[in-house]
Structure of RNA 2-O ribose methyltransferase substrate binding domain-containing protein:
Amino acid sequence: MSDDTSSSKRPPRRSGRPQGRPAGKFGPRDFRPRPKREREAGEALWLYGLHTVEFALKNPRRVALRLLATRNAEARLAERFPGGKLPLAVENTSPIALDKLLGSEAVHQGCALEVEPLKPLTTLELSGARLVLALDQVTDPHNVGAILRSATAFAVDAVLTTARHSAAESGVLAKSASGALDVVPVTTVRNLGDTLEEMKAAGFTVVGLDSEAPEPLDAVRLAAPVCLVLGAEGKGLRQRTRELCDVLARIDMPGEIKSLNVSNAAVLSLYMVRKAIA
């Protein structure tokens, strides 16, 4: 892609005024998570890639500050909006300038969007939900991004993450999610165990994925609503989380390797659970 060039120096940031959190679809219970340590509150970040930028611009909860794009990427983005009109003015740039801004390993596809981090949803409305996905201290941003993408594909009603020991929002996570970060509702809870207990009381069957579980997931009889719980990379589910699960199940694999990366396990288990409760 060839486009007009601009200065390779990083443009000065403009401070954005955070907008109030809309009521949204979540509501009666309120959790108060601790702030992420990886980033100071209100600090902006860069999202990049066509899908990621598109869905961020379409998310009413997202505060967008600046849009940098090559002329080619600008045209491709504009095609995805009514009337070909982008909701934010574009500052044209070059691929080289974006490489210097984001790092040479960032697959930016010619566009980058400076945004305020999403304000975490801290309330959870369970009424009407059929499938909820809970992440028990999953910290790798590539894995979390891929999981969010799968959760969106399988119409998960909400994804639960822990306020501590979870992946902070970042450009890497957003790119791995390919737009899903701005689509699927992600609710941050302070105590996952307490939340699972409340979900069980509300009629949810809590299913924990465990490679050593006695029963294969595709053999478990399930009916909605279901909360599927995935454990951290390497560690698996924490002890209390395991104890709170109604069912512990595994994914049967005939090969020499009997465990999967958590993001791969997520897509397979979501497929099985969605098929079971359809």
About this structure: Helices lie at 50-58, 71-78, 95-102, 141-153, 171-177, 192-201, 239-244, 262-277.
